[in-house]
Amino acid sequence: MPSSTVNGAGSNGASVQIPVINLSYDPSNPDASALQLVTALRPDWAEPGAKVEFKRFTDGITNTLLKSVNKREGESKEDIDNEAVLLRAYGNGTDVLIDRQRETQNHELLMQHGLAPELLARFSNGMMYRYLRGTVTTPKDLRGATGSKNGTSSNDMVAPNKPPPNVWTVMQKWLHALPHETEAERSRQESLQKEFHWIIEELSQRPSLGEYGLVFAHCDLLSGNVIIEPKAAGSSDTEESVAFIDYEYATPSPAAFDLANHFAEWGGFDCDFTVLPTRTERREFIAEYIKTYFAQLPNKPADVDVDSEIDKMCGEVDAFRGLPGFYWGIWALIQATISQIEFNYAEYAEIRLGEYWAWKAEHTGQRKKNGGDLPVREKRWAEEEKA
């Protein structure tokens, strides 16, 4: 049973009590431990007549995500889904990568504004929240979206004038956490740290939206974290609504990084560079982002030149297009040493870091100077029209 509570925020902004359950999810005994957790949250699911089932989602490569339902006799699928619970157990060792306290605070803040599903309970190595009905997108869905309308104190000073936490302090934390047991590992850590200093000088002080050039960013908008919500019965609306989930990497960040990171996910975990958005597709997406940003901005300036802001953001996203490769590359190097999930993190790290090196060679002119061919990703990024 829940042994304590923490204060949170409800959808109307009121303070709520979020149960904390003193139990853990055990990946070696998944169903039994998951059942313990959901029945601690919902004691009636342990009563006679309850039929609790679990469905494992496999889209992610970090955490365990289970949908738990109670298939009571006589209830419709919609009724069952409305009571369903998502159980997310953190991947082994991921506290090295993710500030779990900040993740919870982010989730509670987003709940307050109706931007995240209700957080039902926390447990020692995860959380449970209300299931969001809808369809998980695929990388192909992300690519189709634009066509719908014709830290610690040692990290505090990573990027000058950027109050922590932010995406820069996150990357510095990850660099400190890189494996360094062997001489080869220490050498690579030193090399990537040196590279990060160059990135900070090159990108961290560029002009951007938001105070200090930072906005609240999801930082992991891959297809599995975008849900297409079901339309109301009888609705004639031709547009689809989406919701976002899993804010564990959310932190203040340049808007251009969050956008470039999302565009990189059009290729999925396979990193298919041939389907990344062209200039035209990126501009369509960015135009909607900019218009929405200024529409939602309190005390919006009266003289906003929207077209100029779109042009500037397109340029900034171009400048940031290599950073997601560095970000997820160092993340994957850590995952390769701590994760118990069957995924080739080492290979993934090399692919993602390769994106960064290809961008840098183009950015500095080194590729042209050496007479090398334009890499597939950079070639696709430079294409103008939709495929």
UniProtKB/TrEMBL annotation:
<feature type="region of interest" description="Disordered">
    <location>
        <begin position="366"/>
        <end position="387"/>
    </location>
</feature>
<feature type="compositionally biased region" description="Basic and acidic residues">
    <location>
        <begin position="375"/>
        <end position="387"/>
    </location>
</feature>
<comment type="similarity">
    <text>Belongs to the choline/ethanolamine kinase family.</text>
</comment>
<feature type="compositionally biased region" description="Polar residues">
    <location>
        <begin position="147"/>
        <end position="156"/>
    </location>
</feature>
<dbReference type="Pfam" id="PF01633">
    <property type="entry name" value="Choline_kinase"/>
</dbReference>
<protein>
    <recommendedName>
        <fullName>ethanolamine kinase</fullName>
        <ecNumber>2.7.1.82</ecNumber>
    </recommendedName>
</protein>
<feature type="region of interest" description="Disordered">
    <location>
        <begin position="140"/>
        <end position="161"/>
    </location>
</feature>
<dbReference type="InterPro" id="IPR011009">
    <property type="entry name" value="Kinase-like_dom_sf"/>
</dbReference>
<comment type="pathway">
    <text>Phospholipid metabolism; phosphatidylethanolamine biosynthesis; phosphatidylethanolamine from ethanolamine: step 1/3.</text>
</comment>
